[in-house]
Design goal:
The protein has 257 residues and is an alpha/beta fold. The protein is built from nine helices and 13 strands. It comes from Metabacillus litoralis.
Length: 257
C-alpha cells in the first residue's frame, strides 16, 4: 500500500457547526491510521486551543498558527514567530484606532484590553472565553499569531507593514501572520521530515486560510460547506462536514483500499 499523509483543518472540517466531531469523522480518522497513513492537523488555532481534540483523536503531528509552529510526533520541528518590533508598531497603531489585539504564543493568549464585545463575539464562536489582559505579552513570549478585532474594511490601515499579512476568519476578527507563513509552508517542513512526495499528500479544508494548502498538496479536498474561492482550487469537493463529508471523500478517493 502506498503510504499517504493526510492533513485536516479543524473548524468546519473536523468540527461541525456546533463544534462537535461527527461520529463518521472519528471512525474515518481511526481507519486511516489503521491503514498505515499519517494523519495530522493543519489549523489556524494555537496548540493549546486543540489539545483535547488531539488527545481525543490520538493525533501527535500538527501544523498550528496557519503554519508558524509545526510539530511532528510531539517534537517541535519548525517555528516562525512574528517580529517583535513589528508587533510593537502594530500595537501602537491598533491602540490609536481603538482596536483590541490578542497575542498568541504556543502556550497561551493575552488581550491588550479588558472585556471587549468584539473579542467575546468572535472567540465565543470557537467556544473560548475572553483572554486575560496583558498588553506586554508580546515582549515576554514568542508570538506566532495575533488576532485583530475590527469590522470588515477597518483593517486596511494594517497593511502598511510589509512583514505581515491579514486573513479574516470572522466578521469582526482577522488573523495577523508573518507574510511568508501559510499552512503550505508548514506542510513542506512536515513532509520533508516524513520524506514523503507531494503526490502522496492530501489535505482537507474549508476556509480562506486553507487556500495555499489546498493549492500546494497533491490532492486538495474541499468541504461542501467551504468558501467558494477555495472550491475553485479543489481537486475534489466533498459533502459538507455535517453530511459525513470526510468519510465520503476518503471512500471516494480510495484511501482505505
Amino acid at each position: 500500500m502506498n503510504e499517504k499523509v493526510i492533513f485536516f483543518d479543524i473548524d468546519g472540517t473536523i468540527l461541525d457547526h456546533d463544534k462537535e466531531i461527527p461520529l463518521s469523522t472519528r471512525d474515518t480518522i481511526r481507519s486511516l491510521k489503521e491503514h498505515g497513513h499519517h494523519v495530522a492537523i493543519a489549523t489556524g488555532r494555537a496548540p493549546f486551543m486543540f489539545e483535547d481534540l488531539r488527545k481525543e483523536l490520538d493525533i501527535h503531528s500538527f501544523i498550528s498558527f496557519n503554519g508558524q509552529y509545526v510539530v511532528f510526533e510531539n517534537e517541535v520541528i519548525y517555528e516562525n514567530p512574528l517580529n517583535k518590533n513589528t508587533l510593537a508598531n502594530l500595537l501602537d497603531f491598533a491602540e490609536k484606532e481603538n482596536h483590541p489585539l490578542v497575542f498568541m504564543s504556543e502556550e497561551n493568549m493575552m488581550a491588550t484590553t479588558g472585556l471587549h464585545p468584539l473579542i467575546e463575539q468572535s472567540m465565543g464562536s470557537l467556544k473560548f472565553t475572553h483572554p486575560e489582559q496583558n498588553r506586554n505579552y508580546y515582549l515576554e513570549k514568542n508570538i506566532y499569531q495575533t488576532l485583530l478585532f475590527c469590522e470588515k474594511g477597518q483593517d486596511k490601515g494594517y497593511q502598511r507593514y510589509e512583514d505581515i499579512k491579514l486573513i479574516r476568519w470572522h466578521d469582526v476578527s482577522t488573523d495577523i501572520l508573518p507574510v511568508n507563513g501559510s499552512k503550505a509552508e508548514g506542510i513542506k517542513h512536515l513532509a520533508k521530515r516524513l520524506n514523503i512526495a507531494k503526490e502522496n499528500i492530501y489535505a482537507f479544508g474549508d476556509g480562506l486560510n486553507d487556500l495555499e494548502m489546498i493549492e500546494y498538496v497533491g490532492t486538495g479536498v474541499v468541504m461542501g460547506n467551504a468558501v467558494d474561492s477555495l472550491k475553485e482550487l479543489a481537486d475534489f469537493i466533498t459533502k459538507p462536514v455535517d453530511e459525513n463529508g470526510i468519510q465520503y471523500a476518503v471512500e471516494k478517493l480510495g484511501l482505505l483500499k
